[in-house]
Design goal:
By secondary structure, this protein is mainly alpha-helical. It has one domain: Arp2/3 complex 21 kDa subunit ARPC3 (Orthogonal Bundle), CATH 1.10.1760. A two-stranded antiparallel sheet has the order 1-2. Helix 2 packs across helix 4 and helix 6 crosses helix 7. The longest helix has 28 residues. The radius of gyration is 18 Å and the shape is globular. The N terminus is likely disordered.
C-alpha cells in the first residue's frame, strides 16, 4: 500500500465513529433527557418553561464536538418525538411541534452542532482565554439558534408578531447565561481530565 493510500485509510478511520463514540452519544442523550425531567419554570402567558435542557445541550457540543454533539441531542429529540415523555413537563410526540416550544426543541441539535464545531476549533488552536472563548461560542449558538428559532416558533405557533415574540423570549437570557457559564466550567474540567475526548476528533 502506498503512503497516500495509508494516509487516506488513516483519515477514514479517524472519521469513523468507534464504540466509545457511540457510548458517549448515548450517555449524553440520556443526560439531556435527565435534565428535562427536572421541573421547569413556566414563563409568561405562553407557558414555555425555563429548564436545564439548554445546559446539557451546550455541554454536549462543548465536550463531544459537532457531529457527536448533534447526534446525542438529535437522539434525545427523536426519542421524544417517538413518544417517550422526555421533553419538559413530561411531554412527548410530534404534537409538540404545534406548541410555542417547538422552535427551541428544533434548535437544540443544531445548537449542539454549532457549539461543538466552534469548541473543536478553540480546543485545537488555543490555550489562553479558552474558557472565555468557549463561553462566547456557547452564547453565539444560544442567541442565533436557540433564541432565534425559539422566537420563530412563537411567531408561527402562538401567532405573535416579532416584537412580542422577542419580549416573550427575553426572560430566558439570564438563565441561559448562567447555564452556559456552568456548561463551560464542566467542559473545561472534562477536557483537562480527558484531553483527547474532542481534540482527537479534529487532529490531522
Amino acid at each position: 500500500m502506498s503512503q497516500t493510500d495509508t494516509s487516506t485509510a488513516r483519515t477514514a478511520s479517524r472519521k469513523r465513529w468507534t464504540a466509545t463514540d457511540l457510548g458517549l452519544i448515548a450517555v449524553f442523550a440520556a443526560l439531556v433527557a435527565a435534565s428535562a425531567v427536572v421541573p421547569g419554570i413556566p414563563v409568561g402567558a405562553l407557558g414555555v418553561p425555563i429548564t436545564l435542557v439548554t445546559l446539557t445541550v451546550m455541554l454536549s457540543g462543548l465536550v463531544l464536538g459537532a457531529g457527536r454533539g448533534f447526534a446525542a441531542v438529535g437522539l434525545y429529540v427523536l426519542l421524544g418525538f417517538a413518544g417517550l415523555p422526555i421533553f419538559s413537563s413530561g411531554r412527548s410526540g410530534l404534537g409538540i411541534l404545534a406548541t410555542p416550544s417547538a422552535g427551541y426543541i428544533i434548535a437544540f441539535p443544531l445548537a449542539a452542532a454549532a457549539t461543538g464545531y466552534l469548541a473543536a476549533v478553540i480546543i485545537r488552536k488555543t490555550v489562553k482565554y479558552r474558557a472565555l472563548l468557549l463561553f462566547s461560542a456557547a452564547m453565539v449558538s444560544s442567541i442565533v439558534l436557540v433564541h432565534g428559532l425559539g422566537v420563530l416558533g412563537m411567531m408561527v405557533n402562538a401567532k405573535l408578531d416579532f416584537t412580542k415574540a422577542v419580549l416573550a423570549d427575553l426572560p430566558f437570557y439570564p438563565g441561559d447565561i448562567l447555564k452556559n457559564v456552568l456548561a463551560v466550567v464542566i467542559a473545561v474540567a472534562i477536557h483537562k481530565a480527558f484531553p483527547d475526548v474532542l481534540v482527537r476528533r479534529v487532529k490531522k
